[in-house]
């Protein structure tokens, strides 16, 4: 049985999740392949346009819905408290499911209400003055409907997390954020541990996502010689060690791939590294953040965090 982590709701989240951002047309097959390989945790989002493919893939797999942990996310054009429940319903309709295991606020900022996911004027995003605290309070109400089993956030700074926790009544079950051996964020993740908030790593392979190609120079995180060296001892690849680095901390990780051999291989990242190897990996923290939408999303993010 693969590793599972306990959420503050009492539910369990499988440590290895499957990412579905990008390659929309490949995602239905990829999800089927992932479930066949053993994944029981799938991550999608309204804005990825992959909810239908995820739902189809889950049904095609033949594995009962209840055995799979499904996450989706509220996009920034639906932050008005009146829009939150209908936005969830749109996601559920596309997934073809009656509930999600986890519903996350994708980013801590609001854009103009409406159906346009990227509302722009003169090339700039049109912001809406909606406090993420109010959006989150509307998400809290979803818990009573049974349509979401847990709620959480993504891409919040430390100050934003503190304000959220101080002003709301349901402690987020999960914070999904960029984290990998080149952006380790130990202080920030320790803060979450104290608060009982589970951490999920997105982009666990750092700059492997083609959209991040400009940053970090020509080298790739998964080409780090130290990761390959450590892997030898466990007969694992550098990519699998990068995932195990998250799993060993009690976090979940979300590798994405449309390639069957990689989908299978990444599931083999579910193992624990010994403390000595974890210590060695601390030495390669380059503090590079690849997914920073500051500017293009109309405001600054991650201001008090590593990699800024
Ligand atoms: N909350 C957020 O704001 C947020 C932001 C980013 C991502 N996410 C979530 O996290 C997931 C993962 O992040 P990500 O997609 O940015 O990046 P990632 O999983 O770190 O990297 C994906 C890239 O790595 C390649 N790859 C996968 N396995 C590999 C392996 N074993 N060896 C070499 N290359 C490999 C994939 O190629 P192929 O597909 O061609 O095989 C793809 O190009 C997303 O899909 C999404 O679900 C969330």
UniProtKB/TrEMBL annotation:
Residues at the catalytic site: 48
Annotated site residue numbers, Lowers pKa of active site Tyr: 73
Binding-site list for substrate: 106
Functional pathway: Carbohydrate metabolism; D-xylose degradation
GO biological process, alphabetically ordered: D-xylose metabolic process
Organism superkingdom: Eukaryota
EC number from the UniProt entry: 1.1.1.307
Gene3D superfamilies linked to this entry: NADP-dependent oxidoreductase domain
Any single Pfam family the record assigns to this protein: Aldo_ket_red
Domain NADP-dependent oxidoreductase positions: 16-285
Keyword Oxidoreductase attributed: yes
UniProt catalytic activity: xylitol + NADP(+) = D-xylose + NADPH + H(+); xylitol + NAD(+) = D-xylose + NADH + H(+)
Entries under SUPFAM superfamilies matching the protein: NAD(P)-linked oxidoreductase
Keyword annotations from UniProtKB, A to Z: Carbohydrate metabolism, NAD, Oxidoreductase, Xylose metabolism
Family: Belongs to the aldo/keto reductase family.
Function: Catalyzes the initial reaction in the xylose utilization pathway by reducing D-xylose into xylitol. Xylose is a major component of hemicelluloses such as xylan. Most fungi utilize D-xylose via three enzymatic reactions, xylose reductase (XR), xylitol dehydrogenase (XDH), and xylulokinase, to form xylulose 5-phosphate, which enters pentose phosphate pathway.
Name this protein carries in UniProt: D-xylose reductase [NAD(P)H]
Organism, as annotated: Penicillium alfredii
């Amino acid at each position: 049985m693969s590793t599972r982590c306990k959420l503050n709701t009492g539910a369990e989240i499988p440590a290895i999740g499957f990412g579905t951002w990008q390659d929309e047309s490949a995602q239905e097959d990829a999800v089927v392949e992932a479930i066949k390989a053993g994944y029981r945790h799938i991550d999608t989002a309204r804005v990825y346009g992959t909810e239908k493919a995820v739902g189809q893939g889950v049904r095609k797999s033949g594995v009962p819905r209840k055995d799979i942990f499904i996450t989706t996310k509220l996009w920034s054009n639906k932050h008005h408290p009146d829009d939150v429940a209908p936005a969830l319903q749109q996601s559920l309709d596309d997934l073809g499911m009656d509930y999600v295991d986890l519903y996350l606020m994708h980013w801590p900022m609001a854009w103009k209400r409406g159906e346009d996911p990227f509302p722009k004027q003169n090339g700039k995003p049109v912001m809406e003055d909606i406090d993420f605290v109010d959006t989150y309070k509307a998400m809290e109400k979803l818990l009573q409907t049974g349509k979401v089993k847990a709620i959480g956030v993504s891409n919040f700074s430390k100050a934003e997390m503190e304000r959220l926790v101080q002003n709301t009544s349901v402690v987020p079950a999960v914070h999904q954020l960029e984290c990998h051996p080149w952006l380790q964020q130990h202080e920030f993740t320790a803060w979450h541990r104290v608060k009982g908030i589970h951490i999920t790593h997105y982009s666990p392979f750092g700059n492997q996502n083609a959209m991040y190609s400009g940053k970090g120079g020509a080298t790739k995180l998964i080409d780090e010689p130290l990761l390959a060296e450590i892997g030898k001892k466990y007969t694992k690849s550098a990519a699998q060690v990068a995932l195990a680095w998250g799993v060993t901390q009690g976090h979940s990780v979300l590798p994405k791939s449309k390639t069957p051999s990689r989908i299978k291989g990444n599931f083999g990242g579910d193992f624990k590294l010994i403390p000595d190897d974890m210590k060695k990996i601390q030495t390669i923290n380059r503090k590079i953040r690849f997914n920073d939408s500051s500017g293009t999303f109309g405001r600054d993010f991650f201001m008090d965090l590593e990699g800024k």
